[in-house]
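Exam review. A common question shows you a sequence with its structure tokens and asks you to describe the fold in words. Practice with the pair below. Do the first one on your own.
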Amino acid sequence: MKIILATSNAHKIKEVSQISKTSFEFVPKTFEVEEDGKTFSENAVKKARFAYEHEKIPTVADDSGIEIDALGGLLGIRSARFMKGKPYKEKNAKILEMMKDVLEEKRTARFKCVAVYFDGTPHVFEGVIEGKIAYEQRGENGFGYDPIFIPQGCDKTMAQLSSEAKNSISHRAHAFKKLIEYLKSLPI
């Protein structure tokens, strides 16, 4: 089954293909959609609906980001647009600077991902991974805010984990595994 994956993010495409090792063929395609929703779900549904209306076949889109409790839930839906145009190394450094006086027990955070399968109707799947913000950037794997996020029960950042380890516990893995289970349940 061929499904449009509405994204141009090469890292996201790679993760989804590693997570979804199934008979479903996710075909990446770029669509310019203004992400003006108030939630990850609203943005993901908007992107998936837009792609579906243009391609006339089922589509998948997601929206994801990091929420940092000590910063009032920032960055949330603005994660990708935080310090727009700057490399993630600088974005991560800025977050660490903003949190320099935050105590260990107050450094809680989570990554969230909402994946949407749209076939004329949105089918919404959410994934969350709890953790905390590190004191420094560590690791070269992954992308985005992975070098500063330590998953709960782990002593390494997401960027220090192997792709296989990350893709077994990540927010995107949780959301897309639910989505794939749903797809497997459909009569084809």
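Now try the second one, then compare your answer with the model answer below.
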Amino acid sequence: MSMFKSLVRRSFGALVLAGVAAATLGAAPAKAATPEEIKARGKLMVGLLTDYPPFGGTDAQQQPAGYDADVAALMAKSLGVKLELVPVTGPNRIPYLLTNKVDVLIATFGITAERSKQVLFSNPYSSLTIYVLAPKSLNIKTTDDLKPVTISVARASTQDTAITAAAPQGTQIKRFDDDATALQALISGQVQAMGASNTILAQLNKDYPQLNIEPKLTMREQANGMAFRKADTALAEFANKFIAEIEKNGELSAINKRWFGVELTKLPPMPQF
């Protein structure tokens, strides 16, 4: 199955699962703020992406699977509770958290100054690099070269934020609901370039080598953190200790190798704003 078809299938599954989750959770929102309350409830509710493999995708049964799901499973195990995975999208991640539909986001969520105004971040547990991707034949050497280029991005993503800030006024940026449709726009020729991570680049070159896609500009080295409501400081402190533990004992590196084929390099430092 091509990456695009796989992403579309995953995105459809995510929408179905998200709809079910929203209907189910809307009637009885979680109100946990501490590890003790989660232990008393017996369940950790984690929001994660299902349209961004290998960080967040779905398996053959359309269940969430990937790097983030594995980290969430270890966190629930550390708390001694069951795990409930709740599919979210880039645009609705923060609303799901702030309306108590989940306890925490483990959703490839880049730590930024703007987002930190709304949520409380843990220390980084993963990282990725954001690029402007385009065919080798397209001449892009500086951000000034982006002005005549049409670029696709996933709406409300860190690549959206980074490219919007860096591109010259007048650059045509087309925003899509997820990476699957942003990728389709590049593959079909609807756009000339795409804002995406190194994970998308690797899979794109594997499935569509004839497109000769390469990174043109490095926009951001993104540190990803778990996200909590501002009041949930005790849970964030627990998460920081948990992340340090699984990095030290090798469990996080094993997850990275499972999904990316290489052992984990040192996690990036916590961004300072």
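Model answer, second protein: The chain is about 40% helix and 25% strand. The beta strands are 43-49, 57-58, 64-65, 82-88, 104-105, 120-135, 150-154, 172-176, 193-197, 213-228. Full marks require stating both points clearly.
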